[in-house]
């Protein structure tokens, strides 16, 4: 599944166009490698997403083409969430 579609379906980012912009600006790594919006993700991949004021690291658990809001959270595990307040 494409990275931008995963981010939208899992509701980490609410709109696919926003997910595409974030990825294409170099703010997302997949398994430590800089990723574009078209990068393929699969279960077990680790995503590091740098938002304006926080960094979110998640592991992909499963892929679904569509999902309901309540089920979206089951697609990934949050490994860490860092904000400027809890940095070193």
Automatic annotation (TrEMBL):
Pfam families to which the protein is assigned, alphabetical: S4 (PF01479)
GO biological process terms, semicolon-separated: rescue of stalled ribosome
SUPFAM superfamilies attached to this UniProt entry: Alpha-L RNA-binding motif (SSF55174)
Gene3D superfamilies linked to this entry: RNA-binding S4 domain (3.10.290.10)
Domain RNA-binding S4: 1-64
Coiled-coil stretches: none
Keyword entries, A-Z: Protein biosynthesis, RNA-binding, rRNA-binding, tRNA-binding
GO MF terms held by the record: ribosomal large subunit binding; rRNA binding; tRNA binding
Superkingdom of this protein's organism: Bacteria
HAMAP family recorded: RqcP (MF_00871)
Role played: Key component of the ribosome quality control system (RQC), a ribosome-associated complex that mediates the extraction of incompletely synthesized nascent chains from stalled ribosomes and their subsequent degradation. RqcH recruits Ala-charged tRNA, and with RqcP directs the elongation of stalled nascent chains on 50S ribosomal subunits, leading to non-templated C-terminal alanine extensions (Ala tail). The Ala tail promotes nascent chain degradation. RqcP is associated with the translocation-like movement of the peptidyl-tRNA from the A-site into the P-site.
Family: Belongs to the RqcP family.
Subunit structure: Associates with stalled 50S ribosomal subunits. Binds to RqcH, 23S rRNA and the P-site tRNA. Does not require RqcH for association with 50S subunits.
Protein name according to UniProt: RQC P-site tRNA stabilizing factor
Annotated source species: Vagococcus acidifermentans
